Amino acid sequence: MAYSYKTYSDTKEVMKKYVNASEGAIIYSLGKTRFMALAKEAGAIYKVGASALVNTELFENYLEQFLEPVRPLPKHIYVKVVQEE
Question: 11 vs 26, 37, 41, 64, 76, CA distance in Å?
Answer without folding.
Answer: 11, 23, 25, 19, 39
